[in-house]
Amino acid sequence: MSTAVATPPPPAGAPLTKKVLTADHPTWCPGCGDFAVLASFYRVLEKLQYPHEKIVTFAGIGCSSRFPYFVNTHGGHFIHGRALPFAAGISLGGDDLHVFVFGGDGDGFSIGGNHLTHTARKNVRITYVIMDNSVYGLTKKQTSPTSPIGFKSKTDPWGALDQPINPMRTLLNSGATFVARSHATQVNHMTEMMLRAARHDGFSVVEILSECVEFFEGAFDAAIPRKGGHWVLIDEKKNDGSPEDAARHDVSDELAAFQLAGQAWPGKFGVFYENKTRRTKNALEAELIAKTREKTKGATDLALLQATFAKLR
Amino acid sequence: MVSPNPPETSGGASASAAPRSIKDVVIRLAGNSQDGIQAIGGFLARLAGRSDQDVMTYMTIPSTISGGPSIFQVRMGTGDILSAGDRADMLVAFYQHSYDAHIGSLRPGGVLLYDADHVKPVEGDHRFTNVACPITTGTIEAVGGTAKDKGKNIYVLGLIARIFDLEVAKLTQLIRERFGGKNEDIVRNALLAFDAGYAWPQNNLRDLFYRFEAIDRATAVSGRPQVTLDGNSAIAYGFLAAGVRHGAGYPITPWSSIMETLRTELPKYGGVFVQCEDEIASISTALGFSYTGNVAITGSAGPGLSLKMEALSWATMAEMPIVVVNVQRGGPSTGMPTNVEQSDLMQAIYGSHGDTPRVVLAPKNVEDCFYLAMEAVRIARAYSTPVLLLTDQALSSRIEAFDEPDLKALMVPPGPDRTERPADFKPYPLDRQTRHAPAGTRIASGKYPVVTGLEHDEFGHPTGSPKLHAQMNAKRREKIKALAATLPAPELSGDASGEALIVTWGSNYGPAREALERIRAAGVSAGHLHIRHVHPLPPGLDEVLARYRKVVVAELNDEGVYGFGQFATLLRARYALPSIVSTCKTDGLTFKVSELVAGVARHLGNATLESLVSQARPSPLATR
Asked: Half-sphere exposure of A7 toward its Cβ, with a 13 Å CA cutoff?
């Protein structure tokens, strides 16, 4: 399989279109929710119009983590659960890059759970999209960290016993500065959430409920109106001074976000929390460098190391 | 105060007697870790670096968090010092437990200098020259005030300076530099303690005065000044010189000081070092840096290296450059965290799943830590491959003096190469060396590459093709073989053929060189081969190994189920020579010269050589 096709390359500076951004044909099963996430992501990139070479699409392991092969940008496919620390290296090593990480619930909440906590804590400038299907799909139906109690899988044929992770609560608790939730059947909403996440200066996460039609059919029907479910959006505060605004959700209110996260299944969708004041690690490290260099009066690397050795004489 | 056990022959009777000339001396300082005995070693090392003496130190730090016994051994003398010395010529004992634990390390005729306020030596033991000095009260009287016995270490430094006729002006200058940043009282107290210690021998010792032989000017040296530092610092500075500006790590003994140094230094150079949540995140973040074209480093000790193995395998598959330091300590598991061992060799070479040919380098001494750190980065960049720098606990904390590197000639510029790649760019060409286009680089074709851990075609797309998997495996193997072909012949000392060849890697270099001298002095034809490029091996070794009756591989690991150490096992597999045998040990300490001589003697069946080892060698400090 090769992409060395004979089509002429787009001229430098040409607008990024879905056609330009499309790479390999996805290997997902027909009907998989992930197709819609990919389609929404193309729309996000079309709207953002970043320089093509500055976009990085990265992933760990899982069905959803095949994502980078389907997007024509710089990208990578790393090991299971460790995409976030790798992406932190990308973001801190190339501050002009726009880093997008895609992964599933196993990658993010199970094997990579500790990395999620610490990348959030550090507030590295990354946008992380978790395509949550509540099952291990690539390995063919084992219980996942978000599988509901009673879900029958090959590792729990009698129904899952363990309390599932509450993704919103976990993300809020970790210190992520942008936390949103969407659904793969809602393309416009997904696009809007990913767009806002990408524009957020810091570690931004969008959890997207994305159904695995093969191994957990109907998992998220409770939020699909045409299947009898309820699609309820978070009513965000507009700060318009109206009396009804007082009851709306203030995205900067962490406690209110926790309360939203505690609502009964399927809960609400939209932006749970956004913290615009906490500084990114990118900014803090840049400031540390600037302050240090002020002290050394911009000495060259050679002069700095020579001075270090002179002290060792 | 007079020595309770005065030397039987009281030579000069006065302190003004001419000092006796010695070539080198091994001083072991034994106390508790809060006594600052490491500082004494540091001062002596720095002094030696600024004088004509060479220096090597040996340090143990207890793995207890605070307090507890601690020793520092320094060997100083004229010319090349290769090892820390088997046994001490002088033992400075601060406490009874220091005396009890370390009196056995003193050579016959050596000097026991002990704190008369805390230590009672065994009565009637006339093997040594015993010197009772009231170190604690002497310090308290000198410094006064509320400092109590703080400053004992500097008092002892004064004692040593007088006994060995060290350069007082240089030492007091070092004290000023060391404490100058703090308040003036501290400098004054330190100098008071030093002066009191320096004055004591004059009135209390008779003929225990020595002076180091003058160095032969003709054989000295580069003209560059000497620097004095430990192995971990040398590695950190080697990375800076090599243009490394990014790294990530997680604390573990004895690696931590490398990450501490880089975290502190890198911002000056516009770089970033990230302290991660764990070992896996550390190597992942470092790989992320490398992916942006900033070749990065990470490191750990044995347990952490195990955790990094999955990501290391990815680095081989994705052909991503990275340097991983492993400061070896005693294993398995948590093992002996503050002791030395060389038992991570197989893990370093073969530790990952799948076929992962990769590069392993091992520095031979502190100076080499600097140069091999640079070499590791060069290879990682040139071959787009992971490189492991396999050092050890002994090198990490040992201080040596060596010629200051010629930084002007050595410095490598950092920075990613983001020049636009031509339309025919392929990340994984089968017929050429992989050269990644760092994220942020324009590709003229408009087709952007994916770096991946899946088996892939030349463009990075996943493939299940058996043919491609075989071809890509071959490609990853052949580039390491191509590197091997460029490696310099390793250092061969002594006889070019003969009875025995000692083969070493890592920090065993020094003791083996000294052992070689002793073996040849006993009339046995022998050589010593030291290997710094541990994997892949340099070319031409088969021909060298074949020239000796026995090839004795000395390493600090267990002889294993089949009776061979890890490197010996590799050499036997590679060269299929029955003459390759092992001398191994795992007592957590570096090789003594005598242990290596004994190992060679045993393999040669040479009784004369063996008897040589058991002969007690009197200390050069012995009174006549």
From this structure: 10
Is A31 near chain B, with CB under 8 Å? no
Residues of chain B neighbouring A91 (CB-CB closer than 8 A): 288
Which secondary structure element, helix H or strand E, spans residue A105, and what is its range? helix A105-105
- Chain B residues whose CB is inside 8 A of the A94 CB are 292-293, 416, 438-440
- pLDDT tens-place string over residues B394-443: 999 888 889 999 999 999 999 899 999 999 999 999 999 999 999 999 99
Taking the CA of residue A83 and the nearest CA in chain B, the distance in Å comes to: 8
- What's residue B1's pLDDT? 34
CA atoms within 13 A on the CB side of B23: 7
CA distance B442 to chain A (A): 5
CA-to-CA distance for B153 and B136, rounded, in angstroms?
10
CB contact under 8 A, A308 and B265: yes
Task: Give per-residue pLDDT as tens, B319-351.
Answer: 999 999 999 999 999 999 989 999 999 999 999
- SS3 call for B562: coil
Interchain contact A96–B (C-beta under 8 A): yes
Q: Report CA torsion sign: A144, A150, A152, A156.
A: positive
- N- to C-terminal Cα distance for chain A? 59
Domain B491-614, what fold? Rossmann fold (3.40.50)
Nearest chain A residue to B421, by CA: A53
Residues of A in contact with B274 (CB under 8 A): 88-89, 92
- In 3D space, the residue among A304, A272, A298 whose CA is nearest the CA of residue A200 turns out to be A272
Q: How confident is the model at residue B46 (pLDDT cuts 50, 70, 90)?
A: confident
CB nearest to B268's CB, from A4, A304, A306: A304
The series of mean pLDDT values per 10 residues for chain A, 313 residues long, is 50 86 95 97 98 97 96 97 98 97 97 97 98 96 97 97 98 97 98 98 98 97 97 96 94 97 97 98 98 94 97 90
Domains of chain A: 18-278 (3.40.50.970)
Give me the residues of A, 274-303, that contact B with CB < 8 A: 285, 288-289, 292-293, 296, 299, 301-302
- Please list the residue range(s) of chain B that carry CATH number 3.40.50.920: 491-614
Give which of B398, B454, B613, B401 is closest to B519, Cα–Cα.
B613
- Name the segment(s) of chain B with CATH classification 3.40.50.970: 229-397
For residue B5, the model assigns a pLDDT of 41
Residue B62 scores a pLDDT above 80: no
For residue A3, the model assigns a pLDDT of 45
- Architecture per CATH, B229-397: 3-Layer(aba) Sandwich (3.40)
CATH 3.40.920.10 region(s) of chain B?
20-216
Q: Name the closest residue on chain B to residue A313, using Cα atoms.
A: B227
| Cβ proximity of B35 and B94 under 8 Å | yes
Question: What is the distance, to the nearest Å, from the Cα of residue A88 to the centroid of all Cα atoms in its chain?
Answer: 13
Q: Does A255 touch chain B (CB under 8 A)?
A: no
Band of pLDDT at residue B184, cut at 50, 70 and 90: confident
Backbone angles phi, psi at B513, to 5 degrees: -65, -40
Which CATH superfamily includes the segment(s) B20-216?
A: Pyruvate-ferredoxin oxidoreductase, PFOR, domain III (3.40.920.10)
